[in-house]
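User: Could you check the structure of this?
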Amino acid sequence: MELDAQLNDAPCGYFSITAEGLLLRSVNRTMLHMLGYDSLELANRHVESILSVANRLFFHTYFYPYIQLYGHVKEMYLALRTKDGRDLPVLMNGVRQERGGELFIDCVALEMNKRIEHEKDILRTKTQLEALYQATHEANMRLEQLHAEYEAKQQELLRLNAQWEALATTDPLTGLRNRRFFKDSLAALLEDNARTGQPFSLLILDIDHFKRINDTYGHPVGDLVLASLAALLRTASGSADIAARFGGEEFVVLMPGADRASALEAAERYRAGVEAASWEGLRITISVGAATVSPSDTDESLVNRADQALYASKAGGRNRVTHAEAEL
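Assistant: Sure, the predicted structure tokens are below.
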């Protein structure tokens, strides 16, 4: 798409991607300049070509599903990858629109300079504090004021960091932790297990015949089922457990300290709770696969063992629990 001069040189980056292929259809000169590309180098390239590996996961688990569901995304923080390999922090807005019978996702990106300025300001203030402590009484009065400003800016930076981290690790539909947070937590538990021998277990829960629900009642009802199941998981989980949306209709629960018996007991509690819950006339059940960590496990092998146990539950008739050790 040919961009007009005003949009081409707007004081913010602009690009458009297809709703299906996620190809960069049009990019304005401002965005090309921000990323260090020339002319139409980015035209018809996949959007992943301007994302780091970490931000590709964030894009596909948060931005893309959210905009498909709600039609827009506002003030999402992520880092784009420049041509020379640098991370460029931006604040991005997106909207899904139809043009000529085809759906597009139009995005606007603003460079995030405020956070950098906060950090620079804190360092400048700290340097001034060190010099002013050696000055006169009048300088000491000024020092107290600067110290208060420094503390306020530092707290604001911590608040912003916490807010961005929460957005980056939360599934927007269900409010549970997302796949990124799950993978980080799994890695930490494996490291702790290798160091201390502390056991833990993993559950993978899948809604039985979920496609039939979407096909019969529509995606809004399907989304409501996902959100309701997430609420049930939050209520039934232990205080140390980590419940997350793994993708689609699959959920995972990490259970620190749980051995095989504890994992099976919790899995059965989840299964029975879902079967007994009120679903507004629908019959909702789940199948569960469980695995307890072994000394040889990696993150991939533990997930695969739990997934195989889930497959066994599905193959065995659904609405049941299977532990990976039962499949040995």
